[in-house]
Amino acid sequence: MNIAEELILGKSDYMMPIVYVSATRNKSEISVDTYELAKDLAGVAHVVVEESCECTKRLRDLTDGKNPYNGAVQIFYAQNITQRILPKFFSNSHQFRNEVAYSVYKRLILSRIDDEFSYAKLKYNNLVKKSAESIEISQICDELLDEKEKIINIGNLRIQEMEDKISNLQAKLQIFENRLNNKETQSYLITFETQEVDLYEGEEKDIIIKILDREFKNMDSDPNLKESRKYHVLKSII
After folding, report:
1. Which whole-number Å values give the CA distances from 210 to 27, 58, 203, 238, in the listed order?
2. CA-CA 20 to 30 A from 60: which of 105, 147, 174, 180?
3. Could you give the dihedral angle defined by the CA atoms of residues 48, 52, 53 and 57, in that order, rounded to the nearest 10 degrees?
4. What angle do CA 16, 17, 19 make, to 5 degrees?
5. Its pTM surpasses 0.70
6. How far apart are CA 59 and CA 68, in angstroms?
7. Dihedral pair phi/psi, residue 112, rounded to 5°
8. What pLDDT digit, counting tens, does each position of 135-158 carry?
9. Three-state secondary structure along 164-219?
């Protein structure tokens, strides 16, 4: 349980990706074949499987609801870089398993290779060996390498920015998924971006609700305003 908690909260990191398979609530729901999945990803990723829904419930409390649930698969590539795949988008477990394996391989193929082992660097090292007797050629090679490293560093920074943005969006998506799954009745969610950061959870929402509540109470005393669309929208939100 501690391993799962640290993994979900981004407190631990591993050499290979971790494919975390959550337990399903009942046998009728689509679940991935974990044995075949482990074969598909042998030597490429670790496969971690929940024993039962009790694990899911305990992790929900330990991770503040950030854990996957009801058969969902979460792939942890690195700290704060994850991908969640839901079974509801597939017609059978075979398609589900293939999508999970494909996602891991696709990510690994697109991952950045350490510049020390890149084709360009290996080619450069070979050129340096051949031109060791020529100081002028060596200087040119060094200048080209310096320029290339600058370009790579800029590119890596951009990639890191995009990965951080993806991670933030995934975290927001998880929050919305939790809200939708915890709703007792069918209703709509209102979401919007702000430039402020909550000092406590739900701070901005509380402020907005209080302002809307004040406006709603001002309208409540006027029979004409009670028939307006604005009145009913505020009543619905509050």
Report:
1. 45, 34, 11, 9
2. 105
3. -70
4. 135
5. no
6. 9
7. -70, 135
8. 666 676 677 777 777 787 787 788
9. HHHHHHHHHHHHHHHHHHHCCCCCCCCCCCCCCCCCCCCHHHHHHHHHHHHHHHHH
